[in-house]
Amino acid sequence: MEEESKANANAGGGDVDEKLIVVALGAMKKDLNEIEKGVDQTLQESAVAAKKAEEERRQASIIGNLAREVADKES
Amino acid sequence: MNIEEHFFPKNQVNEEESDVLPEEQGGIDDFHLGRSPEIIGEERKAHMNVEDLRLRNSLDKLDLTLGDKGMLERIVERGREAFDGLLDVPAINEIAARFGTEFDQRLLDKSNERIREMRVELSLVEDRIKLFNQMNEAADDKSGMADLLIGARNEKITEMREKSDWITAKIKEEGANAKIHEINRNKYVEWMVKRNNERIAPLEAEKAKHQNDLRKFDESVRPLVVHFEQLKMEAEALDKERDSWRENAKEAGMKKSEIRNVVKEFDGKINHRYKYLDEWQKINLQRAKIEQKIAAIEVNIRRADQSNEYNRILENKPLLIKDDNPIPEDANVNSEKIKTKFKAGDLLELWQEHFVQKVDKGFQIKEAVITGDSGRSSEIKLNHDEEMSIDEFKKRLSDYYEKRFPKDRNGELAAEIRMALGSFGRDEELLRAQLRDWDENERGKEEAPKLWIQDAIISWNNFISKRFGVELKNNADLAKTVILSPGEFVGKDDVSQEIGLEELQTIVAKYYQNKPGTENQLLRDRLLQECKNFSEEDFAPRS
């Protein structure tokens, strides 16, 4: 893509520093891809943590019932 | 170490029976050997989910059957310490913490319930005592039957007072139990809070890092925005220029083929500018998408974060009667005993304050508070300069009060003192802060103004003359008693001595207690009261 952009820039001419634009677009895309990769990883981890917490909430009622029964026997 | 090894080392548990599922043991291929993914999928649907199975396995291992003696009951028999050991056993610790929380919460609820019931009973008993007292007071006829009735009621009142004392003691006892359950419950909740934080904190850190990366990206892009705007303006200008040129060319009768060639050239310039603008647009969209994903991370973190639930559990407090922290001295719940040594004199000062705050005002506090001279409290054989831990100090006090107020004769006061002792100095930070304040006050006292003893006596005489006013003028004997002669106080060695306000108050109060003429209790009380009224303002050489 970068090569193509450069070719276009050369062919088109104009007032804007098109070489700068081409390089900047490439760099921006690279940076964003890097950030997105990390974000995706964290998103996945957070989804796992959220699921685990919800499981624990559900299990808490089962364990809670048992604990209360044992406590009733104890007291 | 697994749970069986932890509690019952002789009974080795087969690893295959552990709470780890076959898939998780790395044996998924063997487990599903020869079966297609579809069949495996069906089997998975037919089963409970993995977490359910894990939980069921764990609970089976705990053997929470309530009929026969299950493993948990055996653990409970082995003591709290043994149960707490479960928190160190991976795979079971989360269940143990949750179990412990709910177990102690239940006991706390039950204690609170019992306290509520006893409070109702106590209030009924108190009402009856009040009623019987009112009936006795209202009885005018003191002869015959009325006298008998009063006697009977008094007997009942005594009986009910004993009952009231008994209920009060029981409420306090239950309050102490509730506090112990609360402490134990909090221990498990705090474990879960810690685990929760360990889970949430890295995610929060990651999220912050991504937000920061995005911010940096925005900063790096900001100078380029102007270029893209310029590119857009150029594209739009070229677009207009092309259309205008085409119109003019047509009107001028230019050949179509020539017009087409020029327009094509214009289009080339316009299109490649729009191509960059499209790329720029795509980058903006990608950025927006990343922002949405970060928002989704935030939502997941909130779902994963259970701290609010734990805080709600912690808000459930035990019901108390009077003392905020009715921990009996012998309750073995204080995990971190204060080992730091303090000056006995400082601790005694703080204890006096604590005592006055905590013990029921109905008691003769003056009688119960330890008095002593500045260097030594002989009643408890306490050297004020001696350094001791708070526990040693409390033990010394406890022995002293037990002798001074035996339980059989001073039941309620003894219980009050015991409770106050239990809560004294449990928070080392607080104790240090109190000592700091006290030190500052002491320093303040040291810096307080002092007067030559002769001037101090004169300042007192001025004050007391004003207070008695005409009474003194009309009564020479009274004036002789009340007005002090500096000569009585200033000996050869005292001439150069300076004293402060408090010292003067002490000297004067002692002097009046023994001075002839102050036998009249009313006069003595008044003079002693005036000693207290004597303030810094009055403590001046001449007025």
The helix/strand order of chain B is HHHHHHHHHHEHHEEEHHHEHHHHEHH
Strand order of the largest sheet of chain B: 1-4
Summarize the amount of helix of chain B as a percent range: over 70%
The unreliable regions of chain B are 6-35, 43-48, 63-69, 321-338
Distance between the termini of chain B: 83 Å
Rg of chain B is 42 Å
Strand content of chain B: under 5%
Largest sheet of chain A: none
Quaternary state of the chains: heterodimer
- Biggest interface: A-B, 54 and 63 residues
Give the strand content of chain A: under 5%
Count of DSSP H/I helices of chain A: 2
Q: Residue share in helices of chain A? A: over 70%
From the alpha-carbon coordinates, what is the Rg of chain A to the nearest angstrom? 28 Å
- pLDDT average of chain B, as an integer? 74
Q: Helices and strands of chain A: which structural class? A: mainly alpha
Specify the structural class of chain B. mainly alpha
Which overall shape of chain A is indicated by the principal axes computed on the Cα atoms? rod-shaped
Distance between the termini of chain A: 75 Å
- How many helical stretches of chain B? 21
Short recap of the structure:
The complex is a heterodimer of chains A (75) and B (543). Chain A has helices spanning 2-12, 18-74.
